[in-house]
Amino acid sequence: MPELGEVIRRAREEKGMGLDELAAITKIQRRYLEALEAGQYTRLPGPFYTRAFVRSVAEVLDLDADELLARYESELPRQPYTDDAYVLKLGEAQPRRKSRDVFGPWLARGVLLLFLALVGYIFYHFVLESGSWWPRSSTSSAWPSAPKVRDNLPPGPITETAPDTGNAGAAPAPDKEEPPPAPEKTELLFVREEGKTSLYEVRGTDALTLSLSAPGGDVWVRVQKDGEGGEVLFERTLRKGEQVDVDTKGAKSLWIRFGATANARIEVSGAELVLKDKPNVYNVWLQLGSSGSKASS
């Protein structure tokens, strides 16, 4: 049985993908990928990262990560052993020493008694003795009364309004020419998302056109005609800033798989599809509307 690193190397070479391209897609440093393929696990950060690297690489190379980890478990470095009893012993809290502060409780009680005495004094003085919580109001207000507004103000200027002569002599307004109807725009209708695949229905067009670019960095792309498993129309790594138009060959649906999805920009029949918030490896399935440009929303 070949070693794990050999399986990964063969799968990468079958896809025609170099180590630099795989590093750009998985965000794993090239030196770690070289160590993984060579089976030199001591050069990797640790057992946890070793298994995480295997999962990321397997996802890009269309390998079953769970099956690889289970088959080569004996080959991979073991997870660190943790003695639960030892950890529990270290985590036990030491018994607190009994406080010798004798004055603490008595001081708190004294403050409480003073507060209650103050409340009782206020209650007796303002409620029982004066008969009301609020002081009695005097008959005369201490605030000066507001000045009275003069009643006899001089009349304001009279504004004369010109009589309405009507529109009898006005020339008729010219008829406005209606602008020509705008051409129907392509609409990408989101249908559903399952796992790492989104399905879109393309409306407002009779044919699928596809433009791919990599404004954010290198991105690996594979385009297949009429769904996953169909004819491969395009497969390679786009370099940063590169743009390419894919010949769709009259396809009614396109299956597109991305590596480093956030770096990609996709335009379908003139409509842009945003993928910045999608996972590193992601699939997009495009289907032409059942009635082409006449499809209803």
Automatic annotation (TrEMBL):
<dbReference type="GO" id="GO:0003677">
    <property type="term" value="F:DNA binding"/>
</dbReference>
<feature type="domain" description="HTH cro/C1-type">
    <location>
        <begin position="8"/>
        <end position="68"/>
    </location>
</feature>
<protein>
    <submittedName>
        <fullName>Transcriptional regulator in cluster with unspecified monosaccharide ABC transport system</fullName>
    </submittedName>
</protein>
<dbReference type="InterPro" id="IPR001387">
    <property type="entry name" value="Cro/C1-type_HTH"/>
</dbReference>
<dbReference type="InterPro" id="IPR050400">
    <property type="entry name" value="Bact_Cytoskel_RodZ"/>
</dbReference>
<dbReference type="Pfam" id="PF13464">
    <property type="entry name" value="RodZ_C"/>
</dbReference>
<dbReference type="InterPro" id="IPR010982">
    <property type="entry name" value="Lambda_DNA-bd_dom_sf"/>
</dbReference>
<keyword id="KW-1133">Transmembrane helix</keyword>
<keyword id="KW-0472">Membrane</keyword>
<feature type="transmembrane region" description="Helical">
    <location>
        <begin position="106"/>
        <end position="127"/>
    </location>
</feature>
<feature type="compositionally biased region" description="Basic and acidic residues">
    <location>
        <begin position="174"/>
        <end position="183"/>
    </location>
</feature>
<keyword id="KW-0812">Transmembrane</keyword>
<dbReference type="InterPro" id="IPR025194">
    <property type="entry name" value="RodZ-like_C"/>
</dbReference>
<dbReference type="Pfam" id="PF13413">
    <property type="entry name" value="HTH_25"/>
</dbReference>
<feature type="region of interest" description="Disordered">
    <location>
        <begin position="141"/>
        <end position="183"/>
    </location>
</feature>
